[in-house]
Amino acid sequence: MTIDPQTWHPDPSKPAFVAPEGAVDAHCHVFGPGDVFPYAPERKYTPTDAPKEMLFALRKHLGFSRNVIVQASCHGRDNAALLDALRADPDNSRGIAVVDPAISDEALSDMDRLGVRGIRFNFVKRLVDPGPKDAYLRMAERVAKLGWHVVVYFEAPELEELTPFLKSLPVTVVVDHMGRPDVAAGVESEGFQRFVRLMEDETFWVKVGCPERLTVTGAPYNDVAPFARLLVERFPDRVLWGTDWPHPNMKSHLPDDGLLVDRIPVIAPTAELQRKLLVDNPVRLYWS
């Protein structure tokens, strides 16, 4: 399989926005390096290596203190690269794993000691072949005993069918990328309002980053801001933000992570909302 073009910006700008002390990038990834942590045979893309050293350097450059590293689909269920990153900076890193349903309780406990705090269920078929929902439910029941949560990734047209399953999970559920709304349809569209109604259930949290994935008009992503701002202002205690570095599968452009940080005060316009989004909420979910 050929290596995809590089998806991370080689020289991101220094953001003008100064994040509050203790700020968390709550959604990012590590890729490889492939000669140390091989990519999964079943992967649907092969990224350019983006190892932990690059992630930690970017974190410092952006003025953030901590990372939540999410297992990427290119590594499948082999979490070795993720766990290696957690070992390298245990105080400032937490993780979300993707696991085989046959994983042992001992292996889950080992991950917990290293800083894993949840598992991810990916329903985006262009990226993975989703597993059966009953297997996902059994995994959620198992990780509930560790106090973990579940992160889910889906696209907006799938939400209506997924809602009963998501509501059946016995854990906190964190939704990636605002449920990937159709930005062109607007915040008042039925699709996005369906997601807002889901968020009225206090079981659900949402990540409000990734405008570069959702935009129709392009940078600086003004068309995406109303969606994120609505969620931040209506559900201030259950929102998270992340860079999504190194931006897997981005084909339209190389996102400038400094620009992404500078969008934060647009979607969280007060110091209180910024602190909740970047510090209080992720610390409560991942470090408490």
Automatic annotation (TrEMBL):
Q: Which InterPro entries match?
A: Amidohydro-rel, Aro_Compnd_Degr_Hydrolases, GLI/LigI, Metal_Hydrolase
* Stretch forming the signal peptide: none
The superkingdom listed in its UniProt entry is: Bacteria
In terms of Gene3D superfamilies, this protein maps to: Metal-dependent hydrolases
- List each copy of the Amidohydrolase-related domain by range: 24-286
Q: Which Pfam families match?
A: Amidohydro_2 (PF04909)
Q: What is the name of the protein in this document?
A: Amidohydrolase family protein
The species is Roseibium aestuarii
